[in-house]
TrEMBL record:
Pfam families reported in the protein's UniProt record: Methyltransf_11
Keyword Transferase appears in the UniProt entry: yes
Classification via InterPro entries: Diverse_substrate_MTase, Methyltransf_11, rRNA_Ade_Mease_Trfase_CS, SAM-dependent_MTases_sf
Record-listed E.C. numbers: 2.1.1.-
PROSITE patterns in the cross-refs: RRNA_A_DIMETH (PS01131)
Family annotation (PANTHER family): METHYLTRANSF_11 DOMAIN-CONTAINING PROTEIN (PTHR44942), METHYLTRANSFERASE TYPE 11 DOMAIN-CONTAINING PROTEIN (PTHR44942:SF4)
EC category name: transferase
A biological-process GO annotation: methylation
Protein name: Class I SAM-dependent methyltransferase
Length: 247
């Protein structure tokens, strides 16, 4: 996870990206979080970023350990979610003992991992019958202005995998169950811009190209009839979660 993320973020300071994550990235719906982990109480959130999923897990009084490979994101995580245990590590090398978790989850993170190695490592950390859970918030591009926003930002590997039902896990895990929930997030214009700025593709752009892309988003929001003149914009999302269990 660490190397692939570092490559995607080449040329940009990650501290700036961490702040864009805090402002721009959405939380996870409580129903999706509850479905993802079921009755598990001891949960590991891998690739936790600034703690969006971590916070949702803690809100339901679970014992959460957050694992994040990047030092800048980890610092933001510790600031934003101080009640979580936050450790540096990767999906392929979790800093945790065998059979120490009842659920291991990945929010917006599984598409960064080496699937076979990360699956084996999750199985090592899970108790028998423990849950491996994967979840993504994806903008609902069936809405016209959201589709145009996506054209500017470009799609992601995760979005393509979800759309094509191509999300996969490795041994020893079996077939994935799937859950989808639609919802909307009220946002200001600059929050939408921050959401775009937090995307790995955008972070990796040279500064002039990055600023030009973000300005195109401001122009879209200013001109599109569904968003023009609004101080608050409802950005529709579809949260898709997958889970399976360690045999």
């Amino acid at each position: 996870m660490t190397d692939r993320r570092a490559e995607a973020l080449a040329g940009r300071g990650f501290g700036e990206a961490a702040e864009a994550y805090v402002s721009g990235r959405p939380d996870y719906p409580a129903d999706a979080v509850a479905w993802l982990v079921g009755e598990a109480r001891r949960v590991v959130d891998v690739g936790a970023g600034t703690g969006k999923l971590t916070a949702g897990l803690l809100a339901a009084r679970r014992e959460v350990t957050a694992v994040e490979p990047d030092a800048g994101m980890l610092a933001a995580l510790r600031r934003e979610v101080p009640d979580a245990v936050a450790l540096r590590g990767s999906a392929e090398a979790l800093p945790l003992p065998d059979s120490s978790a009842e659920a291991v989850v990945y929010g917006q993170a599984w598409h960064w991992v080496d699937v076979e190695r990360a699956s084996a490592e999750a199985a090592r950390v899970l108790v028998p019958g423990g849950v491996l859970g994967l979840v993504w918030n994806v903008r609902d591009s069936r809405v016209d202005w959201v589709r145009e926003l996506g054209d500017i930002m470009r799609g992601s590997a995760a979005e393509e995998a979800i759309e094509q039902d191509a999300v996969r896990v490795g041994a020893p895990f079996g077939p994935l169950e799937r859950f989808t929930q639609g919802w909307s997030r009220p946002m200001g214009v600059e929050q939408v811009v921050a959401m775009a700025a937090s995307r790995s593709y955008v972070i990796a752009l040279p500064v002039p190209q990055r600023e030009a892309l973000l300005e195109r988003i401001r122009t879209l929001l200013a001109d599109h009839p569904d968003t023009r003149g609004r101080s608050r914009i409802d950005l529709p999302y579809r949260t898709t979660a997958f889970r399976t269990r360690r045999p």
